[in-house]
Structures are given as C-alpha cells and as structure tokens.
Fold each of these.
Amino acid sequence: MTAQTAPSTAPSTGSISAPGHASGTALVKLQGVDKTFPNGTIALSGLDLTIREGEFVSLLGPSGCGKSTALRILAGLITATRGAINWDGGGDSLAHQRDIGFVFQEPTLMPWANVADNVYLPLRLRGVSRKAAAQAIDSCLSLVGLEQFAKSYPRELSGGMKMRVSIARALSLRPKLLLMDEPFAALDEITRFKLNDDILRLQREFGCTIVFVTHSVFESVYLSSRIVVMAARPGRIIAEIDVDAPRARDKDFRTTPAYGDYCRQASEALHGAMGFDEHL
Amino acid sequence: MNAPTLNPSADPARSPADSAELSLAASDDTPARGRDFTLALRIGLPLVLFAIVIWGWETYVRIAGVPHYVLPAPSRIMATMIADWPLLFGSLLQTLKTTFLGLALAIIGGVGLAVLLSLSRAIEYSLYPYAVVLQVTPVVAIAPLLLIYMPQETAVLTCAWIVAFFPILSNTTLGLQSVDRNLLELFDLYGSARPKWAPRWLGTFIARVKALYYLRGPAALPYFLGGLKIAGGLALIGAVVAEIAAGSAGAGSGLAYRIIESQFRLNIPRLFAALVLLSLTGVIIFLAMSAFSHMLLRRWHESAISQDK
C-alpha cells in the first residue's frame, strides 16, 4: 500500500537493498575511533563504522555502550580521542555541520518561542532572514503535520507534537544526514509507533541519511536498513545486521516472518553483548 | 466610614447558597461562574477583614478616649492626610523619585554586570565576591557613611541602588546560566561557525554574544523578573532607610523624613498618614512589577500560566 504511494523512493531503496551494501557511496567513515572521557571512562574503543548515503542505520545497544558518544562524534559536538573521521570528499565535521540535523531525546525547544520560531532557529543562526525562511519553515512543519500549530507555544503541545517540532527543526536546513539520539524513548508506545511511521515517510520524501540511536530491538528492526549492535565497557561494535526488507514499511511489516527473524537476530546479538559484559 | 462594610459583608452571607449552587453548576459546563465566585471571595474577604479592623480601631479609640498623640483614630488620620496633602504629596514624589531612579540604576547595573559575568570567567571571579559583600553589609550601617561623603540626595539614591542591585544581579546571573544544556549544544552545532577572517578568540566571543542574545537572554527573563519584583520593594526600603538616616541629621524631604519629623513633633496623625502612603507605594510597586512580569511571561512560562488557572 505504502510502496505504491511513494514511487519516487524506488531508486534510492534499490541502491540500499542491492546485494553488497558497499555499492552506496560512503557519506562518512569512522576509523579506529577511541573516546576516553577526562574521568577515565572508555566510551568507545576502536570503532569502525561507515555510513552510506540513503541508509537508515540504527545504533542498538545497552546503556553505556557509547552509542550516543558515537553520534556526538559524528555531529562534531565532541572530538574523538584517537582515530579518523572521513567525510565524503574529505574535511572535518565542522565543515559538514551545515549538512547535519540533530534530534535529542528531549524535544529541547525554546519555551519562549512559538513553533515556527523554534523551527526557524537553525536558519536564523545561519543568518537567513525570517522572510526568506518562511517557506522552508512552512514546508518543514507540513512535513511533520504541524502546519496549523505554527503560532502555538511548546507548552501547548503534547509530548509527541513537541518531538515533531524538534524533528522539523532538524530538517529546516535540509540536512544530508539526520542524527537522532533516542528521540522517542520518552514517549508512550502508541505515539512512538506513529512517529516511527512518520520518520520512515520523512526519509522517503526527504531522501536523507539517518543514524538513529535506540535501545529498542523492535524499533531498530522496524526502521532500519542496517542495525549496528554495540556492547559496553569498552563501547564497540559486536554485530551488524542488514535488514533486507523493502524500505516502504507499515504496521503490516510487524507481522511478517522476516520482521520476527530480524528481531530474533538483533535480540541474540544484544544478549551476547550483555552476556559478555557480565564477565568483565 | 462604616457604610462600605455593608456591601462586602453581603457577599459571605450569600456564600453557602452560592457554593451549593456552584457544585451543581460545575457539571453543567459553566466553570467560568466558579472562577468569578472565587475571584469575588478573594477580593471580598480581605476587604471585609479590613473594614472590621478599621471599625474596631475607630470604636476602641473613641470609647477608651485614647489621645491622638498616642493612637489617632482612622478618621483623624484620614483628615490629616487631606489637610496635609500638599506637604505629604511633595514628600511622596521625592521618595518615589529616589525609589525608581535607584531601581532603574539597579536594573542597568545588575543586568549589565550579569551579562559581563556571563561573557567572561575572569570578570566573574574578580567581581562577584564584592557584589556579595556589598549585599550582606546592612545598608543601615552604610547610610551614615554615605551621608558624610556624598551630597544628601546622592547618598539616599545610592542606598536605594545598593539594596535593589543584588537581587537583580544574582537572579539574572542564575537565569543566564540556566539554559537547557541541549539547546546550547544545538547552538554549537548550528551557530558556532566563525567567519574566516576572525581569529579564534573573536570567534568564541561572537559565539558567546550570539548565545546570549538567542538563548541565555530569553531563558533569563523569568529569573530577572523575579529579581525585579524583590528589587522594587527593596529599592523603597533602601530609600526609606537612607531618608531616616538623613532625617536624623536634620535634612531631607521624603516620606521617611516626614515620619521622623512628625515623631519629633509628636504629630502622630501625620506620622500615620505618611506610613499609609509608604505602604500604599510598596503595594503599588509590587502590583506593577507582578503585572509587568505576567504580561511578558503569560504565553510561555509556567509561573505566569498557573495564575491563569
């Protein structure tokens, strides 16, 4: 059903699910990345991760496995202790920040500004005038279905709606890469399912690459084209699972045998990560 | 004098019937009525209490025949207020001038210093302790000194400024630091790109000024307004303290000076009249600050929203 309504996504879906995922161009490569915090905690050790264009990559793992740290290193919010981050065409993350959208676990909106002004913030910081930004703001708000709430204040919105505003804000600069740090963890399951569908639709319409941190096996299988399972102490990758299902997914996907299989695979990998942890 | 008591007292007499009606009406989709009723009670009850106290005071003074130089009756205070109005009004203006000028200077100084402190750690570390010392030293103790070194009007103004300054400084400083950490990270992500021509330190400075304007400033607004509410009252207190200190030196023209002067002359009705004016001034300043704060915050801040409910 959904597959037919989104014909424009066919090419990009094809390139992702084509045999040998290496065929997608690499957007960014982390090579041998270590991160040790000043207090001595080793958050990441020898992380090798390649994000390819058009992918939906989930970083799945127990808390403390460094998945958020990896995301922050990608965003350039913190720097790696060792290792290389190679962006498509070279350069450091700072030069690429214009192409990155970031969504936090909390909506992180400015309570004193209305919805439209919140979405405007990244554009405003880039020096775009309110007039020139008006259309971008409208289109981002309609992408998340909040065009009628442009003048509302965050306190007047529900948790799910606030998260939508946060996503609209991340999309306002039309980023190539969208980084999401457990964005739906604080929401109830019904809202989360709804937003999961929204984010799949957004990626189809928008064609951006998404890296999504989560600790939910089901969420990662439902959303991803690739799941990267991580273990803690030190944070590292222990498994990568390609989810070879069509990208156009809806609630029916949850009842397919393939979905169950991928969930089992991911759970087992995650269990391995936790089990190994106990020996330490 | 006693006539007004009839109207407010009619309110509570009706209250049992009204509240019974209210509990029925509440299910009937008319919460507005309940709110109106609560509002009437909140305004009516204090007025009733006020009328009772005034009536009791008046009656006691008349029956016991208390001399007016010990405790004047409310009616006599009122009469004095009218008779001495030109004198008292002049003093009121003087005190108001000191209070608001002191408050304005405290806002400029307090906000300005808070902004400086937020932009530079070095300035924060070197200045903040002295601001605290200035605050914890009782003004009453400084006032006589100020009167020695400064012209009387300047000294009074300085006192009002000193006491009003600190709540604004400390609240604004706290507010500027209380931005959501994630919002600041978001700011780093989107706003930290510095112009190519700028050296690193200038880039950092520009980023800080931007963060101040876009995030810290608005986040600090509720804190600043909280400080302003306190400072408004304190500026009046500072002005009064300094006027009293100046008054005992035999100079001055503000309301507090009138109080000292009336005490010396045993003109107790006038002392009371001046006191009433002072306390009305305090109430009006507080209400004005609250209204101002509510106006600025009503759309988004929890403190203002809870008042709406």
Amino acid sequence: MSRVIKDIDAGLKSYPDLQRVTEDGYIRVKGEISLVHHEKGEIDRYEVLIKFPEAFPRCFPKVIETSKKIPRVAGRHVNHDNTLCLAVLPEERVISKNGMSFKFFLDKVLVPHLARETYRERKGVYPDGEYAHGYEGLWEYYEGTLGKTDRTKIVEELELIAHAKWPGRNHKCPCGSGLKFKKCHNEKWHEIIKPGQDFVQKTLILLKENLHETN
Amino acid sequence: MSLNKNKYLQQVLESYKMKHVSDLMEKYIEKREVVKDALVEKFKDQIVTGAINSGSYAKHDAINTKFDLDICQPFKRNAFYTLEEMADAVFDFFNEEFEDDDLVAYATRKQRVSTGITFVIDGDEIQMDIVPGRELSADDYVNTHRLNLYVRPKLLESASTTQTNIQKHIDLVKGKTAEREIIRLLKVWKINKNKKRVKSFFVELITIKAFEKCSDVPTGIWEKLEMVLEYIRDNVQTIRLEDPANSTNVVSNTMTDSEKENLHWEMKQMLELIESSDENLKSYFPVNDEFFEEEDEEDKTDAALEIARSGVVQKPWCRF
C-alpha cells in the first residue's frame, strides 16, 4: 500500500487543489481539478472524489464528480453509482493491465475525460462520439475494431481470436479473402487481443449470452 | 431565440474572473506584502506569525469589480495589556508609516475591527483592511486559529470584543466549487443593485445552507442559482445564521427585520420576472462589459477539445 500512496502523492504534485485523505480507513483523493490549457488558461473546474479499488494500479480508480456539473441524465456518461464512465472495458483493460501511475491516470484519462464533458456541455455532443451504454457499447467497440456489424459473425471471429490457434503471418487468412493473414486480419486480431486472452474469453461469454437474449 | 440561461451565467462568471485584472492584482499583492513585512518588522516580538490573507480573494469567491485583499495579524496573548491597545497600536503604526506614501489615498482609517488603508494604483482604488487579533491563551493560536478582536464603539453601541477564526472562514468555502459560483453570482447582483446591507458573509452562509438543505442539488448553474434564490425567498425572514467561528456572532442579525422582508420580496420578484422572461436575468446578473468577449467561449471550447484529445481514451462508455 505504501507504494500506492507514494504513487498517489507523486501524482498530486501536479494537482495542487487535490489532496489525499483517509476516510473510514480507505485512501481517497478529493478536491478540485482545474482544466488548464497551455495558452488559454483555465477552461473549467470540477470537484471530484477518487476511490482506489484493490486492483489499482491495474484498473482505473473510481471517480465521482461531486460538483455535479455533469447532468445526471440519460445520454451523459455517469453510472448509476455516480462514478464516471471513463472508457469502454477493453480500452480500460489495455491501458491499465500492466499497471499505471496515478499521474498518468489524471493526465491522460481523467483530465481529458472532464474536458470532453466540458465540450459536450457547450456543444451538445461529445467531440469524437460516444459508445452506447451497456452491452450495446461493447458491441460497438467490437464492430468498429473488426469492421463488421453482423453480431453472429463477430462472435465467430472472437471465438477464433480467443480460442483457436492463430494462423502464421504468411498463411491464408481464415476469413476466406485469399490474402495472407499479415495482409488481412492480423492487425485487427492483435488489437482485439491486446487486453489479454483471458479478458477476450470472458467478454466473449458475456457477448454470447447477450446475443442469445436479444435474438 | 430564447436565452440559454446556463451558458449566459457561465459568461457572467467568466467576465468577473480575477484573472482579467491579474496585472493590477500583482501590484496590490506586492503592496500587501509590504504591509505584512512592515507588521513583522514593527511587532516582531509580539506576533505569533506573519499576517494571514483573508477576504474574498483568499476565499476564491471574489469578483473583479469589488474585492479586497484583507489581512489578519495574529498577536501573542501577552503582547498588549488590552485589545484596544492592540488595535490602536496597529492603527498608529500604519497612520505614521504610510503618511507620505504616494499610493495611499485618504487618511488611514480606524474601522470597527480593523485599520483601513486605501491604495490607488494606476487610477484604481483598492481597500485593504488590517485586522489585528490576539490569541485567547498563550500559544493557543497555532492549534486553534482562534483570535480575540477589539470592536470599536459606534453610535449608540459601546466598544466590545469578539472572537473569530479566519482559517475557519477560509475553510468554509474551500472545495465548494458549486457554492462559490452561486456566491459570486449573488455578489454580482449585490454590487450591481447596490445592496450594501446584504453582507457578503451573509450571502456565503445562506448559500451554503441552501445547498446543505437541498437533498438533490440540481446540475445546471441556473437551476442551482434558482434553488438558492428560492431558499433565500422562503427562509430569509426566519433563518438564524451563526458565524461558524463564533456561535455568539449571529450573522443573520446584521440585517433588520424590514431589510429581511425587503430581501424576501426582491427574491420573489426576481424569480417571477425571470420566469416571465429569461432576458430579465441579464438585468439582475449583467456581464462585466469590460471583460466580456463572446468569442472567448468558442476559444475555450476549442481548448477543451484539445485537452480532450490529449488523452488515451477517445469515447466515453457506460457499463449500464
């Protein structure tokens, strides 16, 4: 735990309005995050409470936006438990599976996320789109990464990625295109497997259940 | 097209930010440091620590058309025989020290709990109040931050003393971003409508109370402001607001019953007029024209976009 505390304290050096506190025996970070642009100065400010799950730094901390500037309405990305929805699961897994520093999380995940919310508030849309809530968002992620919309076919392909022996780079691609694997699906499969084989296998089970329920 | 009240109020807040007067502030802060250093040099054996910043700037709820850079000087318990002696010693010192200072307008003033100095820099006046306070008991200040102040007599009221805790006043609004936004908006209203009898401390306390009493604080800035205005309308005549640093100081008593009744009717009228036309919001909460730049909002949105795209995640997603 002391290593985590050191890491948290190191991250807080760049965020003077945040402080580490202990509440009910748990380490938390609370205070304000100022979104500062190098030329335009402060753009916006949010008040947050950050909690650290046991798996941290191999998962994202949970963030509650306590200033309630982000409306708690459908279409805004705040979970029922008031935590912010920071990334779709496979992305979160890729970013955090090898551990990450708290500073990295603040600089590269949370601050950009809050800036995205500021943009959304002013423009009415998220700058680079958004994933639908729940399973739909997961499907969208795999549809986008694999470049197909037929969900049965997505499941079939995920089965191959997660369980089958992959073809060699110079072997024919299993999709039937006639191209070598390296010229066809190699890159997409590597993208899908990035969060780890066990993660893809577990996600596949969930998606299959969801497909079964919705069909 | 109807007014987007939330966007408009953000523009109001933006136009009253202290950053717009940062050059001026630097000069004043420099002057404040001169005042603090002078206190240390003059009273070095009698003070507990250097003077601490108080006032709206220290609380981060100042607006750029009216703010003060007040300081409070904590003295040791045994520094003076009486609190009156302490207050007079500080006044006498500054009266003499700044007698020939080109930047000081008017004579240094004895005020109720402070010594007032008005500096003029580049044609702008700023008021600095120096509040002397004495520890309640020896070496007590470091742990409690409590101080006794001397309250000078005024018409029909004799001199008295009061207890305060500047740190508690600063901590009161610390971390309360949403409350501070509403406090700053109410200050905009107060200054523009010349509501001198509605004290800033009263505004701070009643706003914080309104948030505390609201079980489901709304998200938009207009909705939050409306919630506070309604709270003031409904409670100003009966509410008891105590200074959190001193429960015997009943801040709500700084207004008379008729002043409270007036405030009730003003809130009622304001809410009704805004309800009848969004445009009326502008007359109660005008932007500071001097620093209002419409395109600035667009710039900021672009800046937000740049920050958003500096991350490693592109799209948000919800589990449920």
